Amino acid sequence: MASLSLSKINKTALAERRTHKKISMIMNIMLAVAALLLWLVGSNGLQILGIFLFCVGMGIGVIASVSVFRELTNSQLCDVKMSLPMSNLERYLSRLLTLCYIHVFPLMAYGIVGLGGMYFFDKLSDGAILGSTFVDLVTVYLVMLAMTLFIDGITVFCTTCCGALAESVYFSIIAMGCLSVAPGVMYYRIANAFGGMSNVPEFIKYWTFSAVLAAEDSMSDWEIIYHQLISILISCLLLAVAYLIFKRRDASSVGDPIAFKLFFELIMALGVFTVYSAFICTSEMKIGVILTTVIYLVINIIVIRAKISIKRVAVWLLKLAATSAAFMVIVFAGFMTDGFGIYNYMPIRSMNGNSIEIQCTLSGEDKSTYYSTYNGIGDGVNEELSDEQIREALRIVRKYGITDKTSDRFFGKVSGNDDWGSSYEYNCYVNVEIYKHVKKNAKEYGAYVSDHQILDQSIIVKSTDLDQMYDEIEAAGIEVNREVNNWTDYSDDYGEVVY
Amino acid sequence: MIEIQNVSMVFKQKGLAEGEGFKAVDDISITIPEGCIYGFLGSNGAGKSTLMRMLCGVYKTEQGSIRIDGREVYDDPAAKGDIFFVNDETVQFTAFTLDGLRKYYKSYYPTFSDETFDRLTKKLNLPTDKRLAEFSKGMKRQSIVIIGLSCMTKYIMLDEAFDGLDPAMRKVVKNMIVDEMIDRQATLIVSSHNVAEINELCDRAMLIHKGKLVFSGEIDEIQSGFRKIQLARAGLPVSREELEEQGLEIMQYSSLGSVIQAVVRGTEDDIMRKLSAIKTDITELIPLTLEEIFIYELEARGYGITELK
User: Which domains, from first to last, does chain B contain?
Assistant: First the structure.
């Protein structure tokens, strides 16, 4: 029975594929060109065009997904397809398979052709865009697959929640953007402002488009592969959740812009959080509020499909106010808990070979890049530090850098004179980076940054404060390598930056 | 056999608008026996199409139950495998050729008969390699009906299926459907505004208005339950009250001089028995056509009253 059902799913998916010939043809032509362009090792421009075409191919997932699930937004097609002899599960799986046939499989097939060819030709001559070891290519391939499934997963999910074509498309795009941006940005803002830490959160590496950005973050190929596999699993999970909604949909919600009102409220809240996150803790927060209000009202006006009254607008504004309040509650909770305990987070348990590094960097004004000072604790030394020692070092740095920020001592501007007697100022901030050494010399770290711009401080730093801080750290039993403390002048005789 | 029991359907407000939904079908119970041709009659927006969509599992039955040969139809592929539904539009098929449609439906209906398809396309002289977008509205209709018949399902549901066909082609298509259905003892359910067509085609029918069932049954039986009476009495014409006092259910009443005309619900014997107490000079009972019954029933419910008068 099960095998009969699977063959039926495949048979009907192939039948549906024939109804999406145009998308199929566009995908095949575009990806064939893209794959051939990737072979042109040595022509970076053409290879970049090839990569761009692959990205467009991934983006077509929005159109392909909406098109395959068109019965959810078109009442005529819904009549036809829902009356066909299939259960909801069979129909859903059949649609997913159709989507694979017209979108996922071509991308994967041409991906193999393109990357395989690139690998082969790269062996003949140097100069590929990507460092084309086999693992590199597998990594790229998996990133492509993860992104494709993310685009398709989000679009399918949004389409199952919407009953109109327009909403399916623009809510998918909004959801993709917001889901990629909001968690990371919000984490970063709260962690940075209240936790004094600015490392890339672990979950972001598994998550959506941000996984690509995280891939840049000094991860090894194997780590990226691992993260992409998790990302793929998340997309599959999303498709499974989408089925739970799909099976509840009958024709009565087709044509309705929003089939599930909870989805609408969630996506609007996500949008509000994203915009607020981008602007929180900056002096431009009011721009964020205005922007959010305008976007919020416009989307409501589009979606309402009914007469707009003052009462309705008032209700929308109240909802926006409630969402804003919820956001502020989260931010306040972040403030009260030192960035949800991020400050106390120790990314070092069970690590083999710890080191702690404290940097004091001077920057700012037009002289910012000329000088920097660097002070290290245990820099380059694989010494075992206990959690207690690291906590103590962080406590001391925090005292100087964050808690004691009203002391007019540590952060802010430092004045000096150049050789010609001109005065100049530097801004100063401190990084504390805790490295966790992992395989193949890659480092995972938590970077605790105290940035005067974020803390909005303008106070004078004195070198004695740094010395005092190091004294305290040494008193905690951590060796400080003061010999690496130095000021480096990167300017030449004409005041130009030289590296 | 299709059993519809206490079925209701409420549509929620579209978009984000709040408020009460619209009750499209209200507590309808009918039974459609196998092998019959059943007509769904009703005014615009009465709920015919909604009920038909519920019958083929396009809408989920939230209240009541719809069983096809004992099986709930929604989400049951086996039950749906016995049904072919033709809705009132053809736009969704325009990208297909007739041959493409054949392949498409063959994937879904293992019972699809190529022989029937070939025979009927030849009979109606339809090109199988042209896109339906190039067909006239009538040709598109014919194409979908051919596909429906070729799927060899036990039940075929046609929603406004004869729209767009010229009278000659209507006859051809109707005959084609009837011949096919009779040959294999299948059940045909047709909805239409055209009462004469239902009268001619169907052996059973139901009338639905504002979601509620007005009547259902065999057409002959329905027709025998209504009579137009003409009564003439010199001097004082028979008043409506007089008729009602005798227990007659008046749907429509008009008078002209000493002659009155009324549409009354009831069998001929029953009406005659009740009229025997009223002394008249002339008493005449005239059977009603289904179309007249349709109009009077709806008029009695206030539908289109200004337009009809």
Answer: 2-221 (3.40.50.300), 225-308 (3.30.70)
Please say whether the beta carbons of A30 and A56 come within 8 A: yes
Alpha carbon B182 to chain centroid, angstroms: 19
Q: What is the pLDDT of residues A167-187, one digit of tens each?
A: 999 999 999 888 888 877 777
Q: CA-CA distance, B294 to B309, in Å (whole number)?
A: 15
Q: Locate A407 and state its tokens.
A: 């002391």
SS3 content of chain B, % helix, strand, coil (to 5): 35, 30, 35
Encoded tokens for A11: 């048979």
Q: Which residues from chain A sit within 8 angstroms of residue B93, using beta carbons? A: 80
Residue A404 to residue A197: CA distance in whole angstroms: 17
B294 touching chain A per CB within 8 A: no
**Dihedrals φ, ψ of B287, to 5°?**
-65, 150
- B150 close to B117: Cβ distance less than 8 angstroms: yes
Domain limits, chain A: 346-489
pTM of the model: 0.78
Residue A218's region, left for phi above 0, alpha for psi from -120 to 50, else beta, is left
Chain A interface mutation, best of B9, B76, B92, highest count of A Cβ atoms under 10 Å: B92
Task: Nearest by CB to B108, from A74, A84, A256: name it.
Answer: A84
- Pairing assessment for the beta strands A443-450 and A423-437 based on DSSP bridges: antiparallel
Which run of H or of E encompasses A449? strand A443-450
Pair of tokens at residue B172: 């051809």
pLDDT of residue A461: 36
Above 90 in pLDDT, residue A477? no
Chains A & B: contacts with CB separation below 8 Å: 99
Q: Do A80 and B60 touch (CB under 8 A)?
A: no
Instruction: Please give the torsion angle defined by the CA atoms of residues B173, B175, B177 and B178, in that order, rounded to the nearest 10 degrees.
Output: 160
Q: In this structure, how many other beta carbons lie within 10 angstroms of the beta carbon of residue A317?
A: 14
Bridge partners (DSSP) of residue B263 are B228, B252
Average pLDDT of the residues in A46-63? 93
Give the ipTM. 0.85
Output phi, psi for A83, to 5 deg: -90, -5
pLDDT > 50? residue A268: yes
Enclosing H/E stretch for B215: strand B212-218
Inter-chain residue contact A83 with B56, CB threshold 8 Å:
yes
Has residue A437 got a pLDDT over 90? Answer: no
Q: Is B155 helix (H, G, I), strand (E, B) or coil?
A: strand
Across the interface, whether the CB atoms of A83 and B81 are under 8 A apart is answered: no
Q: Is residue A427 pLDDT above 50, yes or no?
A: no
Residues of A in contact with B50 (CB under 8 A): none
Going by their DSSP bridges, the two strands B155-159 and B83-86 should be labelled as parallel
